[in-house]
């Protein structure tokens, strides 16, 4: 017979005595121990939270307030006192949104919208880009400005974009504002997607607040399937590959062989996918347990047949946000704008300057700069609708440049965005010159399309992962010196056997046909309760083991 004493004895034997200091640490911010979905602490706190949440399911404002308080605590455990920044930002945006909604004059509405955008981007710019701008100024003009000791609050980019979407949609009259501040704060601070997305649109999320809470058996099955899958992606695949291989190579690429640099690039591609899609799966699953449906954020992106297809499958909530609120705002495919032409022009000027300053060392940088400009110009000069394509490609390039800058303050992120922008422009003109056949591409064409797209994306990830632009070039240079040495490759593979097996497991899982994943889900849904308990127990063990080893933060927390 199971008694309280037997449970207590089991807990002490497996986890040890819980001291007062340990209990205090559960509720006090520690920058080295953030509250992550893949930690035992989150699991324990969430179970207690969810138990009380069940009793509040038939209430409205009490339930919203309860979730808000837990969300603020969750953010406090991630960013400390900076949870007050979230509150300050929400108060300002809520007030401005009310003014915009109640103002009849369009010009006045626009003024308040501009104020909101400047405040939001100004706040984001200070915390994320201040030191980048200081370093850039010092390098360009021999300045001596000191760097600021700036702490980057976790997920500031995500909740800033989410808050901006709310106020812009009110300005566009796509939605009405919430009835009060509590409802708005619930939307902005909702903890499952607060720190790393998916970025939720107000018009998709707010209607769910007012609906009756209805959690079906199928919702629970879907949620558990997503959470279990997300935990395996993050704790089993991503963490192990990162700690035992990828981080080591990218930290000091010159200490490793060409083959190791190449495999680390492939490793990072599956690591970032498992890390970010794993977090998104857990966020969507946890939200589903609370009765809210968040949008899918990934759809097997490495199966993409083109770079355009990739951005329909990767970080869908961000790409949709950039399209609706940036690309369309600067003109889209309709008209040009100052901003749309400014950023690509600045980038290509900087690229040309980089090529010229390095001409004494090598002609390669200048060749790359001139080649990039020629390719971009040809992407609209070869089009039948030159003017429209020119506008579209400049606006698209601007969107991707700023999308790269959103991810981080560094030349490597700008180059990453530019590469994707250039590839999108090239793909558009390619599709115009060689339109797809009505019967669709052959399997061979599709295979090579996926292969080329995947390797281009992996190449771009090198810039994304490297700590700076110079390190990215070192990795690329090392890979470029690769020679066929099967015996050395075999020795490396055997030395990193577990890493490569997990990489293979991650890629096989990703490329599984949809019919197989659907069958897996079908079997899971019909699994007896006892077996589901065993699976959950195994996943809990994974979470606990990860917590003991020290949990790795999610990659997108830094953005």
From TrEMBL:
It is found in: Cell membrane. The chain crosses the membrane at residues 35-53, 111-129, 141-161, 181-200, 220-241, 338-357, 363-383, 390-407, 443-464, 491-512, 533-557. Keywords: Acyltransferase, Cell membrane, Membrane, Transferase, Transmembrane, Transmembrane helix. Belongs to the membrane-bound acyltransferase family. It comes from Flavobacterium frigidimaris. This is Membrane-bound O-acyltransferase family protein. It comes from the Bacteria. It is a multi-pass membrane protein. PANTHER family: ACYLTRANSFERASE (PTHR13285), TEICHOIC ACID D-ALANYLTRANSFERASE (PTHR13285:SF23). The keyword Transmembrane applies. Pfam families: MBOAT (PF03062). Its main location: membrane. InterPro entries: Ac/AlaTfrase_AlgI/DltB, AlgI, MB_O-acyltransferase, MBOAT_fam.
């Amino acid at each position: 017979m199971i008694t309280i004493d037997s449970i207590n004895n089991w807990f002490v034997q497996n986890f040890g005595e819980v001291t007062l200091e340990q209990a205090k640490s559960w509720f006090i911010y520690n920058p080295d121990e953030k509250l992550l979905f893949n930690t035992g602490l989150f699991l324990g706190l969430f179970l207690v939270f969810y138990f009380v949440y069940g009793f509040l399911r038939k209430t409205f404002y009490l339930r919203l307030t309860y979730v808000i308080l837990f969300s603020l605590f969750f953010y406090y455990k991630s960013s400390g006192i900076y949870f007050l920044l979230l509150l300050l930002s929400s108060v300002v945006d809520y007030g401005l949104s009310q003014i915009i909604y109640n103002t009849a004059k369009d010009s006045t509405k626009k003024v308040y919208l501009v104020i909101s955008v400047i405040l939001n981007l100004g706040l984001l710019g200070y915390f994320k880009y201040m030191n980048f701008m200081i370093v850039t100024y010092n390098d360009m003009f021999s300045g001596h400005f000191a760097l600021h000791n700036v702490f980057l609050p976790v997920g500031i980019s995500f909740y800033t974009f989410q808050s901006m979407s709310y106020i812009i949609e009110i300005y566009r009259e796509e939605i009405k504002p919430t009835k009060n501040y509590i409802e708005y704060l619930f939307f902005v601070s909702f903890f499952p997607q607060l720190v790393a997305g998916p970025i939720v649109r107000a018009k998709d999320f707010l209607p769910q607040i007012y609906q009756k809470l209805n959690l079906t058996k199928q919702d629970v099955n879907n949620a558990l399937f997503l959470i279990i899958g997300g935990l395996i992606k993050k704790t089993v695949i991503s963490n192990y590959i990162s700690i035992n291989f990828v981080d080591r190579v990218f930290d000091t690429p010159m200490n490793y062989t060409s083959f190791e640099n190449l495999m680390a690039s492939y490793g990072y591609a599956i690591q970032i996918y498992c890390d970010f899609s794993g977090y998104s799966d857990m966020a969507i699953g946890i939200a589903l347990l609370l009765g809210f449906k968040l949008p899918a954020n990934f759809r097997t992106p490495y199966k993409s047949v083109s770079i355009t297809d990739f951005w329909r499958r990767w970080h869908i909530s961000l790409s949709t946000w950039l399209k609706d609120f940036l690309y369309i705002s600067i003109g889209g495919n309709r008209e040009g704008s100052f901003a749309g032409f400014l950023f690509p022009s600045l980038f290509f000027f900087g690229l040309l300057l980089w090529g010229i300053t390095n001409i004494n060392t090598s002609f390669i940088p200048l060749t790359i700069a001139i080649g990039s400009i020629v390719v971009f110009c040809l992407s609209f000069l070869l089009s039948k609708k030159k003017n429209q394509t020119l506008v579209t490609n400049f606006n698209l390039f601007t969107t991707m440049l700023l999308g790269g800058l959103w991810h981080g303050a560094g030349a490597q992120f700008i180059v990453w965005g530019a590469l994707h922008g250039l590839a999108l422009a090239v793909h558009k003109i390619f599709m115009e010159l060689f339109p797809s056949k009505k019967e669709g591409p052959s399997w061979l064409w599709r295979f090579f399309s996926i292969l080329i797209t995947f390797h281009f994306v992996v190449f771009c990830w090198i810039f994304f992962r490297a700590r700076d632009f110079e390190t990215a070039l070192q990795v690329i240079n090392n890979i470029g010196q690769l020679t066929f040495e099967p015996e050395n490759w075999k020795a490396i593979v055997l030395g990193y056997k577990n890493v490569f097996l997990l990489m293979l497991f991650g890629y096989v899982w990703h490329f599984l046909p949809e019919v197989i994943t659907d069958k897996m889900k079908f079997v899971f849904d019909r699994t007896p309760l006892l077996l589901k308990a065993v699976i959950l127990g195994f996943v809990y063990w994974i979470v606990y083991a990860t917590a003991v080893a020290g949990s790795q933060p999610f990659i997108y927390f830094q953005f």
